[in-house]
Amino acid sequence: MLTLNIGPLALGVSHVLLLGSLLLATLVGWLIGRRHGCNPESQLFRMLMLGLLVARLAFVLMYAEFYRDELWRVVDIRDGGFIAWPGVLAGLMLGAWYLWRHAQLRRPLGVAMSVGLALWLCGSLVLQALEQGTRLPDLQVRDMQGNPVNLRDYAGQPLVVNLWATWCPPCRREMPVLMQAQQREAGITILFVNQGESAALVKDFLLAQQLSLDNLLLDEQVQLGQLVGSRALPTTLFYDAEGRQVGSHLGELSHASLERALAQLRGD
């Protein structure tokens, strides 16, 4: 499952896990801190903010070549470009400084940090294990000529499956990024699986946007999103040559975030 659905709202499970870890840590810190007359809520929030900032900066520095010409994209976090471990270390270092400087916070903050970090780590490991145990769905869709095609027919080399629709603004913004990757990556197949729209509408969209895409498929019954556990668009899935899912991305891809995922597929 990639998203948690609350009515019409689809939230990424990884985002829910991070928020849940913060909320649990805050609750535990508050309960313990009542006995000591202090509440570590503000310290926990600052640790999270510092961790996110450092995780983003680490990603930007690693893929700096993709940001040189458009520096404003450094603050555009919609691409999900974060490297977790530098952020975790930065947050823990700030937490250690708080523990050293404020004796009354040591027990409530220390326990809260431990509980929040444990939940996030265990949850992340479970999500990763579940994701990597997922296979390329056995699903029949249609190509632009109306011929039936099974997704598993594309197994045999690394595969990127992009779920999109013409009405989706982030889908439209990431299309040129994926198109360039398709033209550049000869060893990786990129499938564009449209969700619930007709061939005529897709053709009109491509013509208007001046896009030239290969491997366009139509999922008219919107079954693929249900099978992979995502109601969010765009959703991009990454499979190895044996059809095992090795990664996923919810939301808009940038050149940098796509390169990170493709590097894993290439084994870089």
How is this structure best described in words?
It is built from 8 helices and 9 strands. β5 (159-164), α5 (169-184) and β6 (189-195) form a beta-alpha-beta unit. It is of the alpha+beta class. It has 2 domains: 3-132, no CATH class; 140-266, Glutaredoxin (3-Layer(aba) Sandwich), CATH 3.40.30.10. The mean pLDDT is 91. The chain has helices spanning 13-36, 41-62, 84-101, 106-132, 169-184, 199-209, 224-228, 255-266; strands spanning 3-6, 9-12, 140-143, 148-150, 159-164, 189-195, 216-219, 235-239, 245-250. The longest helix is centred in the middle third of the chain and has 27 residues, at 106-132. Strands 4-3-7-6-5-8-9 form a 7-stranded mixed sheet. The protein has a two-stranded antiparallel sheet with strand order 1-2. α1 packs antiparallel against α4 (106-132). The protein starts with a strand and ends with a helix.
Mean pLDDT across all residues, rounded? 91
Radius of gyration computed on alpha carbons? 21 Å
- Report strand %: 15-25%
Helix content: 40-55%
Q: Strand order, biggest sheet? A: 4-3-7-6-5-8-9
Report the span from N to C terminus.
27 Å
Order of helices and strands: EEHHHHEEEHEHEHEEH
Outline type: elongated
Number of domains: 2
Number of strands: 9
Number of separate helices: 8
Structural class: alpha+beta
Summarize the biggest pleated sheet: 7 strands, mixed
Poorly predicted regions are: none
